[in-house]
Design a protein that fits this description.
Two copies of one chain form a homodimer. Chain A is an alpha/beta fold and 518 residues long. Chain A folds into three domains: 168 residues, Thiamin diphosphate (ThDP)-binding fold, Pyr/PP domains (Rossmann fold, 3-Layer(aba) Sandwich), CATH 3.40.50.970; 131 residues, Rossmann fold, CATH 3.40.50.1220; 175 residues, Thiamin diphosphate (ThDP)-binding fold, Pyr/PP domains (Rossmann fold, 3-Layer(aba) Sandwich). Chain A has a seven-stranded mixed beta sheet, with helices on both faces. A six-stranded parallel beta sheet of chain A has the order 3-2-4-5-7-6, sandwiched between helices. In chain A, helix 3 packs parallel to helix 5, helix 9 crosses helix 12 and helix 13 runs parallel beside helix 21. The longest helix of chain A has 16 residues.
């Protein structure tokens, strides 16, 4: 005989969800108590919900399956919202379990009562408040089916306390997965014709199309047809490095993206949206597809990417074409004046095989893709939804998904402070993460943006809003205060020494790189 | 000629909103640039939105007028949601200004695009996306009118970037305030009759009824009629100490609250809701008003509290009655084994005149009301919505509202970690705040709750979810890392020394009290 919570955890585990990132409160206590009844479920505690949701996001990107979160009512969900937004925009599967008051208690509008569903809808196409212990696991199975996609989605199951503690829970079978369909013949034929015709052609890859099997297929197509390969500006996960096809990312700055895309006659989308400017700027274009360029969608978010690319490869007769692959190539050991650029160069020089780079370095990471292009193969996961505070939590999840790989998380000082509590979970779980904080003591990207939006009249008060010099944040103390070994680097040599030490010493590390704004 | 942002800030200032707690991004850059055009507006930067919203909450509680927040799209609002929830539940006025993409940019579903309004509705009865620069300030004036209440509310004005940067902004006049009405004569007469009749009577005070003028009026009524005075469990702001009428707070534990309320024949509500259990527990009551007790509402949230109490005082002929006032009384200097109780006792012994206590101490603060009852008069502000992470941000706002008063913020270790970034703003603004962190290295309240909910089967995995020992959090390093002077206390004498030092040294301090779980 199980209660709701026990049956729910069993249902999750049976469907392959074996990790839950948690920040529970009283309404989740029966779920917490039930953890011991299902040994296969790992529960990872976070001190803040944004860490839990960001970790679940990073986990799913690397494990290729969802994690669950356990959150405390509407406020806990709210605290997790920014990283849920990043997961939504990255089409990352995730199952939120949000505890709620007992069904009969909501009428009293107690202190923590709020409309959870309305918050959840911001990030979660599937939201349901489970109404009875008997239905709970059926609801959960439906949520799991939805969240796995394609496209991957955030699903939110709201779990009233009495539904959780009620007896009579019955685990549900894992949802049946309907395999997605590839592009139809007519679409493939039309795209093949465009690629084989004249003009300038490019293929824009997003989501699942940036993983090795898709990359190998599309690189053959590109080699055969002369199409250029682009990756979306903020990939959910891109596999790259020596031996894999190189793909150029669309630039964050619309001005540069327009140069990348200029003169295109055909743009083929594979699991990607047409490129648009990240923000709007007075007098500048938002939609970046050049006029006269014909858009084609080979695989939409709901479709089979590999199947579609295989059909296209066949149609353009690229099955035996040799793809262009990245040659091994590392930058030299950096020396001289210490800058963010030198950090990126050092990473390119020293990063080990099969590393996971979590890139939330903002302005400081501009040169990272160049320096790491020919490094040993690795994955990069990025700020898919633009909600900063993703990097350190993503690193938690990535390290739990891939315990045998080194995770290198890069974050700006401003970004790192949103979810700095992630360091504690890294220490608690002894995760193999090297956190590199670019401390330029400013919201450097906003200094760029202040100019780009053409805001005039900015004086001392405005500039103070972008200035993090007073007081200076000491990330070494913050890290040590949460149990993470840390070093400060103010010179290139200090950085190299700290990074080399961290690379050979398992467990979490933080290196504070004191750099000038880029 | 003003742009939208400049006219908006002028409108805010003209309506008395002269403080804005900010965490801006690109879409808010014109608002930021406009700060220099209106010298009366003070902008206070936070590193995390939950700090900004919690500070605005604390500010309004102490300044008796709203502050604004400046937040970055739906994700910034999400990060601020928990403390907006606390403000909502405390009926605290606040104006959120949430930047959004330019109106024409939303169609492209860029990375940061999300449905902001749906998030805002969780906390904000008034939500509007301003559609044009011409209408912006009218919208703002309407929002200000709504948020000021009564009841105080959170209002959310969504500000698209092009509405902000557009030319032709026209400041709007401050909204007209309609004074609230007192209880009608029949209600007053019925309540007077109940109070003058037999049986056991109590008056439950909430919101504005816990401020000095209301307290003095109601204390006369109580003295005249024999009614007992209660305060709601988590007051928004209560004025107390020597010379003010003492009021007993309803207990957090429903078991104890039931004892407090048992046998009541009449319960009179003044700006308060009927008491309910904070959470639901299997087999226990949620609604705490005893059976057979008659409920009366003297002043609802929309009504005039003082006017209603004055009418009632007249009706029961209490105008000249001498109220019971708290005598000056401090506990002795604590000595012996160091516990949370000793910290509370030390505060009672040493707190200066006119202090502001921000109480998020959870289990560690249980004895605080007793030890401070006869201390010099002071204000206490508490966790109105139950969303932890309120204390340190509230202290920021309280200190900015009342620069001449000492703010003492008490937080549990678990609570403090949700919005620990508040320390940086305290240092940046050189605020006179003493942060006392009760570090018992656990979510101690959840250990209590795990037992109270009757969850069985909790083993090592469950218990680990409530355990913050590994790694131990070093709050001294966290504080120093954000520029706040800090000391650790492991004995009562160390605590006394640190507290006395902090009391005589202006600026922010943190004292980490290493205590056993209560």
């Amino acid at each position: 005989m199980s209660n709701g919570a026990q049956a729910l955890i069993r249902t999750l585990v049976d469907a392959g969800i074996t990790t839950c990132f948690t920040n529970p409160g009283t309404s989740e206590m029966h779920f917490v108590a039930a953890l011991d009844s299902v040994p296969e479920m790992r529960a990872v505690l976070a001190l803040f919900e944004g860490v839990a949701t960001g970790a679940a996001d990073g986990y799913a990107r690397m494990a290729d399956k969802p994690a669950a979160t356990l959150l405390h009512l509407g406020c806990g969900l709210g605290n997790g919202l920014a990283n849920l937004h990043n997961a939504r925009k990255g089409r990352v599967p995730m199952l939120n379990i949000v505890g709620d008051h007992a069904t009969y208690h909501t009428q009293f509008d107690a202190q923590l009562q709020s409309d959870i569903e309305t918050v959840a809808r911001n990030v979660s196409p599937w939201v349901r408040t489970s109404k009875s212990t008997q239905d709970l696991c059926k609801d959960a199975a439906e949520a799991i089916g939805v969240c796995q996609g394609p496209p991957g989605q955030v699903a939110t199951l709201i779990l009233p306390a009495d539904v959780s503690w009620g007896e009579g829970g019955v685990p549900a079978a894992p949802p049946k997965i309907t395999p997605p369909k590839p592009a139809d013949d007519a679409t493939v034929a039309a795209i093949a014709q465009a690629l084989q015709g004249g003009g300038k052609k490019a293929i824009l890859l997003g989501g699942r199309a940036l993983r090795e099997p898709a990359l190998m297929a599309v690189a053959r197509i590109a080699a055969k047809t002369g199409a250029k390969l682009f990756a979306e500006v903020f990939p959910t996960r891109i596999e790259r490095g020596a031996g894999l096809p190189p793909v150029e990312r669309i630039a964050y700055l619309a001005e540069l993206a327009s140069v990348q895309l200029s003169g295109l006659d055909h743009l083929i989308l594979v699991d990607a949206k047409p490129p648009v400017s990240f923000f709007a700027y007075p007098g500048k274009k938002s939609y970046l597809v050049p006029e006269g360029c014909q858009l084609h969608t080979l695989a939409a978010f709901t479709q089979d990417v590999i199947g579609s690319l295989d059909k296209l490869a066949k149609a353009v007769n690229a099955g035996q074409t040799k793809p262009v692959l990245q040659a091994p190539r590392r930058p030299g050991r950096p020396r001289g004046k210490f800058t963010a650029d030198k950090v990126c160069k050092a990473i390119g020089q020293l990063m080990p095989d099969n590393a996971i780079l979590v890139d939330e370095a903002q302005t400081s990471g501009i040169m990272l893709p160049m320096y790491t292009a020919g490094a040993p193969r690795h994955d990069v996961i990025t700020l898919t939804g633009g909600a900063i505070g993703q990097g350190l939590p993503n690193a938690v999840g990535a390290a739990i998904a891939c315990p045998d790989r080194k995770v290198i998380a890069l974050a700006g000082d401003g970004s790192a402070m949103y979810t700095i509590q992630a360091l504690w979970t890294q220490a608690r779980e002894k995760l193999d993460v090297i956190n590199i904080i670019f401390n330029n003591r400013s919201y450097a990207i906003l200094n760029v943006e202040l100019r780009r939006v053409g805001a005039s009249g900015a004086g001392d008060k405005a500039k103070a809003q972008l200035d993090l010099r007073t007081p200076p944040i000491d990330f070494v103390q913050l890290a040590q205060g949460m149990g993470v070994a840390a070093k400060r680097a103010t010179t290139t040599d200090e950085f190299l020494a700290a990074f080399e030490h961290a690379l050979r010493t398992p467990g979490p590390h933080l290196i504070e790189a004191i750099v000038p704004p880029a």
